[in-house]
Design a protein that fits this description.
Number of domains of chain B: 1
Radius of gyration of chain B: 15 Å
CATH topology of chain B: Heat Shock Protein 90
CATH superfamily of chain B: Histidine kinase-like ATPase, C-terminal domain
Strand order of the largest sheet of chain A: 1-5-4-3-2
CATH class of chain A: Alpha Beta
Distance between the termini of chain A: 28 Å
Strand content of chain A: 15-25%
Largest sheet of chain A: 5 strands, mixed
Helix content of chain B: 25-40%
Number of helices of chain B: 5
Oligomer: heterodimer
Shape of chain B: globular
Number of strands of chain A: 5
Order of helices and strands of chain A: HEEHEHEHEH
Number of helices of chain A: 5
Structural class of chain A: alpha/beta
Number of strands of chain B: 5
Largest sheet of chain B: 5 strands, antiparallel
Number of domains of chain A: 1
Shape of chain A: globular
Largest interface: A-B, 21 and 25 residues
CATH architecture of chain B: 2-Layer Sandwich
Strand content of chain B: 25-35%
Strand order of the largest sheet of chain B: 1-2-3-5-4
Chain lengths: 122, 148
């Protein structure tokens, strides 16, 4: 079982919000800048890694029951994004790694993606 | 839902207001949480409603989202007076989109909206007239599909 605390150390991440939520379990992860994909392919309690820092990221996380958001490439969200996350109890982390590298590190530590069928014969 | 059998809520969706996009879906989600609907079911309703709400904001210049909540199911009706959908079958195809670039930069407009609404709901009906508007009706049975 992997929690946010372990994610945080693997990504050398800084906690922007939700320090008291770091024992939250991470079931799977998704790296995306396309919120349409996040809404379509994630499951509950998925960790989202993204380079987008607009309010729709928090809204997507809220409505999809995601467990936390990691902003990659050291991108810091604005105050209103942090406020929106706070109102919805969504922890926010920021890492200096790129989306690819951050996902790779988490995959290496055992976090899986959200599998889905693309082709009918799979 | 002990005192009433059915509950209706309606939200106005303001045109082009991306900062507030999702407020209707969020309000409906909170209401469903208060009356104890299973989390997996709420998630499907919230995502389906959010996709429809985004479509109204992107394409239709605002509209109305109504939730009719019964003990066994929730019906979401999203109505707008926008440009309508000329070819509904085409709009149901994954990846088909007419969204402008600024919407794509926000992480939307990938042509997954209608397909995802169909995936989340148990039944979806679209009535659309070009230059008059669109009405989407989604039925969600309160059955937890993941943890049955």
């Amino acid at each position: 079982m992997i929690n946010l605390n372990q994610v945080c150390s693997t990504l050398n991440a800084k906690i922007l919000l939700g320090e008291d939520q770091m024992d939250r379990e991470v079931f799977s992860a998704c790296g995306a800048d396309l919120m349409s994909d996040v809404l379509t392919f994630t499951k509950r309690k998925t960790l989202l890694l993204t380079g987008l820092t607009n309010v729709q990221v928090v809204r997507t996380a809220e409505l999809s029951d995601l467990c936390a958001i990691v902003f990659v490439r050291g991108k810091l969200p604005g105050k209103e994004i942090v406020e929106a996350a706070k109102a919805n109890d969504i922890p926010l982390l920021v890492t200096c790694y790129t989306l690819f590298e951050a996902c790779g590190r988490l995959y290496e530590m055992g976090i899986k993606g959200c599998p889905h069928k693309v082709f009918a014969d799979e | 839902m002990s005192d009433t059998k059915k509950m209706n809520v309606t939200y106005e969706v303001a045109p082009g207001d991306f900062e507030r996009a999702g407020e209707a879906s969020s309000g409906i989600k909170r209401l469903l949480q208060r009356i104890g609907i299973p989390a997996e079911v709420i998630r499907r309703i919230a995502i389906g409603t959010y996709e429809a709400e985004m479509n109204v904001i992107i394409h239709a210049g605002g509209g109305v989202v109504t939730a009719e909540i019964s003990p066994d199911n929730t019906v979401i009706i999203v109505t707008d007076k926008g440009p309508g959908i000329a070819d509904i079958e085409q709009a149901k195809q994954e990846g088909w989109s007419t969204a402008p670039d600024y919407v794509r930069q926000m992480g939307f407009g990938a042509g997954m909206g209608l397909p995802n609404m169909m995936k989340c709901s148990d039944k979806l009906d679209i009535v659309s007239v070009v230059n008059q508007g669109t009405q989407i009706t989604m039925l969600f049975n309160h059955v937890d599909k993941e943890n049955k």
